[in-house]
């Protein structure tokens, strides 16, 4: 028996499953999330219980929200938790490198370990691992795929909202 619950939200990048335990959000997962989460831990579907999280996610995609106000309860190693906390310091609409994260957590030589921890971030979007790029600025792997990562970065830069606005006027 699990004490988690989940909700599914339709977004411009596909369905996202929000998973929460008693202490807060434990996961935000894409339909084709890589690595795939263990759905046995999602618990019962309860859209009403996660309505606030779903609404904040919808507002983010509408360009109306740049930060999230949600209790988070990620499960990870102490190192992963430090990396994920550093990710939350990356401002909306900006990117940072794996090296920046490594410096930020006080382990400047741990760039590869930071990359691995970043790839295991269970709370996509809210803990903005999509804002991390390679040292040359090139997009690197993302749990939702590189097209999804580019879409999120375009949304945050205003480029996606500009396209949507132009299409709604036409």
From TrEMBL:
Its EC number is 2.1.1.63. GO terms for molecular function: methylated-DNA-[protein]-cysteine S-methyltransferase activity. One of its GO terms (biological process) is methylation. GO terms for cellular component: cytoplasm. The active site is at residue 129. InterPro entries: MethylDNA_cys_MeTrfase_AS, MethylDNA_cys_MeTrfase_DNA-bd, MethylDNA_cys_MeTrfase_DNAb, MethylG_MeTrfase_N, MGMT, MGMT_N_sf, WH-like_DNA-bd_sf. Keywords: Cytoplasm, DNA damage, DNA repair, Methyltransferase, Transferase. Residues 6-74 form the Methylguanine DNA methyltransferase ribonuclease-like domain. It is an enzyme of class 2 (transferase). This enzyme catalyzes only one turnover and therefore is not strictly catalytic. According to one definition, an enzyme is a biocatalyst that acts repeatedly and over many reaction cycles. PANTHER family: METHYLATED-DNA--PROTEIN-CYSTEINE METHYLTRANSFERASE. HAMAP family: OGT. Belongs to the MGMT family. This is Methylated-DNA--protein-cysteine methyltransferase.
């Amino acid at each position: 028996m699990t004490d988690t619950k989940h909700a599914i939200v339709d977004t411009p990048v596909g369905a996202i499953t929000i998973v929460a335990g008693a202490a807060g959000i434990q996961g935000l997962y894409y339909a084709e999330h890589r690595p795939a989460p263990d759905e046995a831990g999602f618990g019962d579907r309860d859209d009403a219980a996660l309505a606030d999280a779903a609404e904040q996610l919808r507002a983010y995609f509408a360009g109306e929200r740049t930060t999230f106000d949600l209790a988070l309860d990620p499960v990870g190693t102490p190192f992963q938790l430090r990396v994920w906390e550093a990710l939350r310091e990356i401002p909306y609409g900006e990117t940072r490198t794996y090296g920046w994260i490594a410096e930020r957590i006080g382990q400047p030589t741990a760039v590869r370990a930071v990359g691995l921890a970043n790839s295991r971030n269970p709370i996509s979007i809210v803990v903005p691992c999509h804002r991390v790029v390679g040292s040359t600025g090139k997009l690197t792997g993302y749990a939702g795929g590189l097209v999804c990562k580019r879409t999120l970065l375009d949304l945050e830069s205003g480029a996606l909202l500009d396209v949507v606005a132009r299409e709604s006027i036409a």
